[in-house]
Structure formats: structure tokens, C-alpha cells
Design brief:
Blueprint: H1 4-45, H2 49-77
Amino acid sequence: MIDKQDSFNAAYITGISFIAALGGYLFGFDFAVIAGALPFLKEQFHFTDVQEGFATATLALGCILGCLVAGSISGRFGRKKR
């Protein structure tokens, strides 16, 4: 028989797994968007291959950094006062 504690842990682990999978999906989507924009960036700014790779890496790192600081920024400047 499954007790209440086991069902809670299963739901919690399933939720965390879903959020992690969604994060991976969105990270891959970001790379797809960057890949779609690269030809236009390369043409506009006359990027070399090294500059194109640097721009891709910088955009990805910017996405990661933005996700890490978004919560604290919205907490500090959001509508609700602490």
C-alpha cells in the first residue's frame, strides 16, 4: 500500500523533473532563436567565424545570467512591498 508520504514525494519529484525538462527545452529554443538571427547579425556586422561564435556564446551566457538575476530584481523592484 502506498502511504501519503510516498505519494507526496512522487508528486514533488515529478514537478521538479517537469520544470527541469521545461528549462532544457527553453534553453534549446533560445539556441534556435539565436541560430535564426545569426545570418542577419553576420551580414549586418560583417562577423568572422570567431566573432560569430563569440556572439553565440555571449548571448547564451546572457540568457543564463538574466535567468539567475531576474528573481531578485523582480523581488526588489516588483509591485509588492516586503
